[in-house]
Description:
Helix content: 25-40%
Structural class: alpha+beta
Bound molecules: adenosine-5'-triphosphate, magnesium ion
Amino acid sequence: MNDILPDQTPLWQYLEDTVRQVLSAYGYQEIRMPAVEQTELFKRSIGEVTDIVEKEMYTFSDRNGDSLTLRPEGTAGCVRAAEEHGLLFNQTRRLWYTGAMFRHERPQKGRYRQFHQIGVECFGMTGPDIDAELLIMTARLWKALGLTEHTRLELNTIGTPAARRQFREALVAYLSDYRSELDGDSQRRLESNPLRILDSKNPDTQKILDNAPRLDDFLDDESREHFEGLAQLLDAAGVAYTVNPRLVRGLDYYGRTVFEWITDSLGAQGTICAGGRYDGLVEQLGGKPTPAVGFAMGMERLILLLETLQLVPDHVDGGADVYVTAMGEGAMITAFGLSERLRNELPGCRVVTHCGGGSFKSQMKKADRSGARFAVILGENEVRSGMAAIKPLRSDEQQQEVSQAELPVILSRLLEPA
Length: 418
Ligand code: ATP
Ligand code: MG
């Protein structure tokens, strides 16, 4: 579980703001759920025989003896909240949320025990149009972040539960003949969750899978049409994808469309955004049958990716714009007054007023370290004459003396981007 320190938060804010802008451009609304839910909720939605529920959840009993779990993902809680507050009654919804998720995994690059997701969930829409919208929207986000060239979309359809059941039987029948040649995880999954074997990264298992039955051969007509509809809309929108017939996703609740946005720039932890359709989940959790589709993106991986590719924009520096220094008690009073005026008249300008006294030299050192582009210097002379000095901190330009009255106007001109 990581601390995110002040020199990192500006990049986080930049990422979050960019995502927020894109989501709002499509009319998505934010929902905020608690970080803790009843353990049962996750078991019933994610599935008992998934990695998350079997070995990754932080579960504890509270003082009432209720079993609670720190949320490992957002979909279950979102469905619970939407259902509990009647948000899904005879209406469509486009929702998003952000927050910390918790999984007891082996920590490594791009994989942490507390991590952050921005998730999107859409309810009440059956057709492939909304699936397409989600993917077109994410493609727009990658563009806004400069990531288009560094991401690719993998897409699959896993059909209806009935189709998957038939496929599962055929897959188990086929793989049982090779049981001893499978990797350990896959051997166990042969009983518990055979579809997950398709996810195996083990090359020998992959080789065996090459001749395995394909889900595609068991697909129902409606799922096939849905998938073709989605492909058509993506083609028309110019969103490129590859169909990966082995993409099944880890959780039980998916059906039909599943997808992952992958980058090749982060090594093994390359999935930055993943999701799919889960038409059965709302009903499974006690609601009326409600079609649904969504995705979640991993913020840590996106931050890593922006850093790795050096796509962090210049304005993401986290410092101040103006640092106001004051020598002497009288100057301090003036400094506070002037700083307030700067904040009134230069909205958005980050003004740091020096506190804690000290010599001119030490104040200028702090001004420099603040990242500000200009220091405003108020000494006893300036206070007496109603003047202030503006010292550029990031260029060799000359310091200038201006009247305190004109200071906001002159600073605003100086701060304008060149
Ligand atoms: P993976 O196969 O990498 O374990 P997952 O299928 O468990 O991913 P999801 O539950 O689909 O992941 O979560 C969506 C996204 O959240 C992932 O694509 C990833 O970007 C991010 N994510 C998942 N688990 C972690 C983690 N432990 N640390 C950081 N990011 C994570
Ligand atoms: Mg995982």
